Fold this sequence. Notes:
Keywords: Membrane, Transmembrane, Transmembrane helix. The chain starts with 31 loop residues before the first strand and ends in a 21-residue tail after the last helix. Helix 8 (303-323) packs antiparallel against helix 9. It is α+β, with helices and mostly antiparallel strands and 971 residues long. The longest helix is centred in the C-terminal third of the chain and has 24 residues, at 764-787. It is elongated.
Amino acid sequence: MEQEAPAGWEFFDSVDFPTDHIDDPMGRPRVRHVVTAVVVGHEGAAWLPRLSESLWALNPRPDRLIAVDTGSTDETAELLAAMPGVEPVVSVSARTGFGVAVARGLEAHGFAPIPSAVGPYGDDGHMPVVEWLWLLHDDCAPAPRALEQLLLQATMSPNTGVWGPKLRLWPRDRELLEVGVTTSLGGRRDTGIENGELDQGQHDQPRNVLAVSSAGMLVRRDVWEALRGFDPRLPMFRDDIDFGWRASRAGYQVGVAPDAVVYHAQAAATGERALAGTRRHAYQLDRAHAYYTVLANAPGKLLPLLMLRFLLGTLMRSVWFLLGKTPSGAVDEWTALLGTVLAGGWTQARKNRRKLDKVPYEDIKGLFSRSVHALRHNLEETTSTISERIREAWADEPEEQVVTTARRAKSTARVAVDQPRWRRQLIRRPFLVAWVVLAIGAVISARDLIGGGVLRSQLLLPAHENLAALWHAAAAAPPGVTPPAWLAQFWAFSAVLFGPTGATNILLLGAVPLAGLAAWALLRAFVVDRMARAWGASAYGLAVFTNGAITQGRLGTCVAAIVLPLLGAAVHTVARRRRVVVQGSWRAAWFAGICLAVLIAFTPALGLLVAVILAVGGVFGLGWRRQGRQLVFSVVLGLLLVLPWTIDLVRHPWKLGQEAGGPPTTAVGPGDSLPHLLTGTPVGAPTPWWFAVPLILVALLSLLRSSRQRYELLGWFAALAGLAGTLISSRLGGGSGPLMFLMTAGWVIAVAVAWDSVGKSTEIIVQGVLGIVLLTSVVTAGFWLVRGTDGPLWRGPAQDLPAYLVSSQDPPDNQSILVVRKAPGGQMRFSLVKDGGPRMGSLEAAPTSAQSKPITDVLATLGGGGSGEEGRQLAGLAIDYVYLPGPVDPTLQATLDSLPGLTRASADDGDASWLVDRSKVEGKTPLVDQTHSVWRFFGLLGWIIALVFCLPTVRRTVAVPQGTHARRDPR
């Protein structure tokens, strides 16, 4: 007795219900169809009730229903046993593939017996009989007329041995999944259906296809037995395409019946159930089976081209996965390709299938997807993925709310609705107004520095002429000398900022608005009040000017001012997430490591101080939890990215006082002035030290409040850390300009957070204090605009040499010029100018004293009156000119005039120069640079990896096409 039918079939459309007979419109004799259905289930308890309901609604129903359970741990076996008219459930291992599971079910129960009595259509039992095998997944639901329409098409086209239905999206959606399927020779599965395409009858013509999905596949028994079922080497994924390809090669046509509708849940592809039965990733397994299917069935003459195509495709997809921060995808690509090709199973499969070849490849070539379709599809997916990742950048992880809704509503600016739209927007976005003012002010303040030439100062050497020269300088240094790490990073800036000269102009002259923008990115994480945030960002930007970094041409401090807030924002992202499921952020940790590497390269003292603070805070402040480990990882990454510069700083600690761009900044600091030290204003800064007093007083007053915020304490901690670092650095004789800037930055944060807390207060005292803060900032901005950013920083030619000496350094002459200056104490200093003169980074990569000893010995002899051999010695050192800039020492000038081999050359007033006769001596310069290509290669590789891991993640979905993945859960 059959089980009781479920209540209600509202799942189906009314048009899906069957008619009474299967009639051939062409009037051909009726055929008796005997159908054996096999359902394979694995962890399918969530979908089997709907499948059972659909089997009750079928008319006609299968003559025999076989159910196979592949090691399910839920109620799948019980639900399979409850289906209408089902045979006893066959249980197999969870590692059993779909094709093998079907074979086990048929071995246990066999095909349905052919009735000998009167048939279902009123015949006498002598009607021609055709046996069929109908394959069903546990997460599909055939419509009531699905089997009827499949058999109707089989009656009308008796030469077609395999039929497939139209697949729609589960549970009852008109979105199309498949109406037949094919593949390209590159292994890409192609359904011909656009993503999200709705079923409007546009694919309702029955036609021949290469393959159909195994979800609802109807196979004639003789075809199934002739092809020996699915390939056991394909336990899942691509087995249906392989089966259809083999059927086409053997002369059996494969067709699709669009009037037969099957709803499919795609449980494995959508992640509704985990994969089981294999340790391989689903994506890797799908790619491996795709390669196997093509290699086992493609014509032999195409194999060399296919191998090359697979290799190029794997390489391109691997690069895409790496750029999308999914290295496991790249590993899966190469593992799938190499594992399939080297395993050799496809070679045996080719031998076994040669006897199937009854139809040449040219006759079925039109069933395959064209390569141009695959290329178009890849481009569409790439564009869609990039757009989606840009929209979801920094939003793929849950973030803890900074403030409550009430507080955020309290800080919202109220604007009268009758105001013009542009005015309302400006009032609601005060930082936009402030930033525009800063940008315009940067142009006005740089009015005396706009023009030809390059930016220079005593602390800023000229920029390189082009990117090629800068790239060479980033890895070139005398033997035993490490090239500065910041040159390679500056090359990256220059590549996107209009060359080395353009990058210098933007980073120096635009430091105020750029630093303000970076500060806004940090303050928006914990400062809610718009006015407080706008003031804090603006004050931070102006601090770059008050620190003297722009007017003195200190490129390192300007870059540090821009990068420091970005590092703070990344650290905040890592450390803030404590009360959410996902703690920390590895992407932010990678970004923090990059920012720290830039700080260490451009301002070693500041970078080392920040690295120590982060390491100690990660270990002791956050504990050795996830966030603590991420901060320590950021410190380690920052130190690794600047190798071997990190090793050089350990070997030569005095280099910690240097800044990028020019000579050591030992003169930049508070000196012996206590006011300059306490206010964080270097000696020689463009503003007087007492400009910082109101800011410090307000920061001190904020500490007296009982409701002070923890970010105020963090600001004060930064200020005190900068003060301690400044004191130590200045006493050791190192430059402390960046450390003094850290003091000012800490006070700005403390005041901005305090403003955020009391900004809505109506107390006179509070309003007066905030007014003082605003007034001080306005006065500082006005001083910035009136004074300008020139002074020690000026614009002029790259070399202070006569024109003919400058031109002599160009090819093909490439002459060397020894520039000698006599210090007030009588000591002579020199620089060997060649290839365009000293440029950025040349002092950090200066030769050692041992390497420059030959030139030093010659100058020492000249200082003692000379021996007459100095001209020949200079020629032997490959020196073409000796140049003395004014004021010239008369004794040294007389000595050089008397030397044989030196001829007086023309020079500017007050200067002197001599031409060295090298006609009799073949000279060789002792200062030959060595290119550190290995470090440059590994450094570039490390930065690429770090930048890739900072990018928004490209989510790798399992590219298992529709209609093949709900057979079992293959893990």
